[in-house]
Design goal:
By secondary structure, this protein is α+β, with helices and mostly antiparallel strands. It has eleven helices and seven strands. The structure holds adenosine-5'-diphosphate and magnesium ion (MG).
Amino acid sequence: MHRERIKIDLLIHDLKVPLAVVETGLTSLLQRREKYGLLTEKQEKVLARAQRNTKVIRSLVNDILELGRSREGIVGLKSLKFSDLIEQALIEIFDLVDRNTSERIRICTDLPELRQTLEKKGLILLIEEALWCQEVYLDEAKIRQILRNLLNNALKYRKSRVELEVNKKDVHLVFSVKDDGEGIPSIYHKKIFESYFQMDVTDSYTVRGHGLGLAGVMILVEDMGGKLFLESDEGKGAKFLVKLPLTKNNYSDLLRRSS
Ligand SMILES: Nc1ncnc2c1ncn2[C@@H]1O[C@H](COP(=O)(O)OP(=O)(O)O)[C@@H](O)[C@H]1O
Ligand SMILES: [Mg+2]
């Protein structure tokens, strides 16, 4: 790995310790009133907001480190259920923008209940019950990061509706995230995956982020041997599709169950 890159990754890695201290402190103040004293409603609000934002920083730090690991070809396969993977990604997303919904997702006990909760927010979850309950070997950190980025974009740019669909097609796993927003003109379809690219602000589009998310998603998908597709046209919404290979080594469980 390039020496400069290692230095930057080390710096980012070292942010974890002070960050953990801040997070633990905030959690203690919020949860251990008998030791640290009572809080007024306003103090509690401020602390809870600070706590949520330290969580965001923690997940961003982990994302950057995961991208570094990915560039080195490290894939960390772990046995997990689709339901846990998707629920976790959704909780991370809603924790920041809509605490009530993230709490509701946390207490959902089955797929129909989760679907109902999400539908109220204009998010449609399309996955078969059998796949939802299936256990699979996947790189959880990478897939969560991919889903979080695609879903956050879709929720940001939609008019009213977002669809998350998960399917198994032959020897591939396919995730797609579709929205009904302004869409992306075809001249930008390649550029959009380049770092720091955002669509021209002189168009009707305004700058609303950093232009790093999709570039990262592309790296993660490719490092897992997958492909990322974009189907979109101006005014017609956008659909991002992630196709990951189910090979004998990393997805043996899923293959065995389906055969
Ligand atoms: N679902 C979408 N609909 C319309 N435009 C999108 C969508 N997703 C991404 N874009 C465009 O692609 C650009 C790059 O996205 P991204 O890499 O996630 O960066 P960021 O979210 O930081 O702007 C965005 O600034 C936006 O212009
Ligand atoms: Mg983004």
